[in-house]
Write a structure and sequence with these properties.
7-stranded antiparallel β-sheet, globular, 3 helices, 22% helix, 200 residues, alpha+beta, 29% strand
């Protein structure tokens, strides 16, 4: 099975990948436009992403370039702090950090937010990547609409375990990344995409 070739999505070169997509079929273009407006609101409220899944898969927190929580639409250079749901009483190093590298709103029928694993905010030129995937990995979140549907997709590309850290974290990252390779992370992403497009 090969990674889909999707405009705006990096090519799959090395490592693991996933194509996670959820579609809600609708009656007509007018309903699609209405549902897409609601989906856009959800899409830009990153702090609420974790609430749209049946199960709490993760906690997403939008942060500015200094790592402070913010309540606004994301911009390039912002960070998303992610806490996997199974971690209780989290410590600082339990959080995963990604940086928003691209936001594309040029197509009226599609919006994209692309992220990659990052160092801690404010420490761009020092420190180590704080994520179980390496900095070469990208995750692209996409919402779109057609004449009779709305869709959310997440495309993971070039997913490799982050070994640019201490020995204990390297081993932990390897196991988490391997878990993703056998399907567990795809199930979590599917819960998010499905929850986001499940619009009443």
């Amino acid at each position: 099975m090969k990674a889909k070739k999707v405009p705006g999505i990096p090519l799959q070169v090395k490592g693991n990948f996933h194509d996670t997509e959820s579609i809600q079929k609708l009656e007509n273009a007018q309903e699609a436009e209405l549902k897409y407006s609601i989906l856009k609101e959800r899409f830009f409220e990153i702090n609420k992403w974790g609430t749209y899944s049946k199960e709490s898969i993760a906690e997403f927190t939008l942060c500015d370039s200094s790592g402070n929580r913010i309540n606004r639409s994301p911009i390039i250079g912002d960070y998303i702090k992610i806490l996997l749901s199974e971690i209780k009483n989290p410590k600082t190093n339990d959080y995963q950090w990604v940086r928003i590298d691209m936001i594309d709103k040029t197509n009226p029928n599609r919006i994209m937010i692309q992220c990659r694993p990052s160092k801690l905010p404010g420490n761009e030129f020092a420190g180590k990547t704080v994520h179980f995937h390496s900095a070469s990995t990208t995750s692209t979140f996409v919402i779109s609409k057609g004449n009779d549907y709305v869709k959310m997709a997440i495309y993971g590309r070039n997913e490799k375990p982050n070994q640019n850290t201490d020995i204990i974290s390297s081993v932990k990252n390897l196991f988490i990344a391997l878990g993703g390779m056998v399907g567990s992370s795809k199930i979590q992403w599917k819960q998010l995409t499905h929850g986001m497009v499940s619009l009443k």
